[in-house]
Structure formats: structure tokens, C-alpha cells
Amino acid sequence: MSTTHAARRNGGIEATGLDGAVIKPTECDPAAATDLPFELVCIDYEGRAALPDADLLAELAAERTLRVTTPVRATGFDPLGDDSLVDQVPDDAGRVLVAGHPAYLDDEEQERAVAPRLGAAVAEATEPWVGTESIERVALAAGGVQYELLSRRTERDLRGLRAAGFDGEVAVYAPTVPSDDEDEILDAVGEYAARRGPVRRALPEDAATDARATGRAREVLSAAVRDYALVGDHETISERVGSLRDAGADLVVGYPATGVETFCE
Fold first, then answer.
1. In three state form, how does the secondary structure of 130-144 look?
2. pTM for the whole structure
């Protein structure tokens, strides 16, 4: 499958220039993917119990260009152990190979070595995307489309990669809030941004990290959400997406942080 996709340009969220959308199955019915105005849809992994069943994944793959996140340390997706869940992902769906968020891994899974598993999974998968979060060098060595989490350094890092001669594809994952209401933005992604090291260190102790934030905390968070998420009206988001492309991103995929319905309007 090609890794280059275009949104259906009918206005609305498509005007932002996003290439696709991410669905979290604990937040909405994954079947909602068919209502999205994007050809490309990625389904995040939120634990074995939240993995959509094989029939639904097959239906989605028949209607969209589907990618399913599969943590290489998770039992069921471990290429050096139990990989029984791989068969649940349709042959015509792509895989996003990641180390796996600790929140969705048990203690034993978290202790498994990432590098050999990622290398083995890349060798087995067809045109995989490889999540770089916390394993940037390992991911780059493994190959595949590099799947970056948007941060304050993303554009600089992309320019550095391209200047060094990297000619592989890069996709960027970005929480997205198509709104210019500051309270709505902070409620959606303020806590998310506050977990980042530089933001956490800059925030006053015990400060609220949502719309209740005031003073210095609100100033820090208002700047931080614009580093770690795509926020604002469609034109503002489009400008940021354009900057990411200029820096070297091939694809920008948005996670609807205020609900999947905001991408369907």
C-alpha cells in the first residue's frame, strides 16, 4: 500500500491539510471511522480488551486505508513470543509498530526488550510505520515510515534529518483541537501538554492544567498546547501543518482531542 494519502477536500476539517485521523477505541466506536472525511484512518492500541474485533477491522480496511497500532512488547503482538493477535489485523491493513505505552502493558510486557522485537516486526510487516516516541534511534535503525509525536522540537528535528540526507518517509501524530476557544483547548489538551518535561518544570506547583488555570500557569499552558498539539481555527491549523511539511513531514495525522464528531462536521 502507498503511504501517501489525501483527505477528501470538501471543506471543514479537510481544509486544515491533515492527511488522516486517529481513533481511540475506548473513546468512540471504531466504526465511526467510516464517517470521517479522510481516506487514512489509524486505530490506536489501548489494551487487548479494547482491540476491535477482526470482522470490524476487515470492514474498515475495505472502506478506508487503515492502520492499526500494535505494540511489539504486548502479548499477542510480540514477534519473538506470542503473536496470536497479528492474525486479527487484516492483510490489507497496515501496522504501526510501537514500543507500547506503559499504561497498556503489564509489568512483564514492560520488561521486554524493544530493539530486537521492533527489528523482527519490521522484517515481517508490509510497509510498516514505526513509532519513534522514546526510542528514536532504535526506530530509525529499524526502518519503515518514522511516526513522530508532535512536539516543540519536531520541525527542527525534521530539518535536521533531511539535512543529514534522510530520504525516508515521516508521519507526524498530532492531537488536534479545531477551535479558537482557549478554555476548550486547555480542557482538551492542557493536561496532555503538562505531562511534557519542559512544561512540567515551567508550571507552578499544583497548578490546574485545564481551563481552570490562571496567571503564570495559564500562560505556560497556552504556549505549550501550541507546541504539542494542533489548535485553533482551520486556517491556523493549516498553517502549522504547512510548516511541518516544509520542515520535511510527508504525512500529518490528527487525533480529534475534543471528540471524533469534531472531525465529521
1. EECCCCHHHHHHHCC
2. 0.93
Say how far apart CA 120 and CA 116 lie, in whole Å: 6
Residue with cell 492527511: 19
Amino acid at 220: V
Quick one: CA dihedral 25, 31, 32, 38, positive or negative? positive
CA 121 to chain centre: 19
**Domains annotated on the chain, with CATH:** 12-177+234-264 (3.20.20.70), 181-231 (no CATH)
Per-residue exposure over 207-237, b if at least 16 CB sit within 10 Å of its own CB, e if not: bbbebebeeebbebbbebbbebbbbbebeeb
Q: What are the tens digits of pLDDT across the range 74-127?
A: 999 999 999 999 999 999 999 999 999 999 999 999 999 999 999 999 999 999
Q: How far apart are CA 174 and CA 257, in angstroms?
A: 9
CA distance 182 to 155: 24
DSSP 52: P
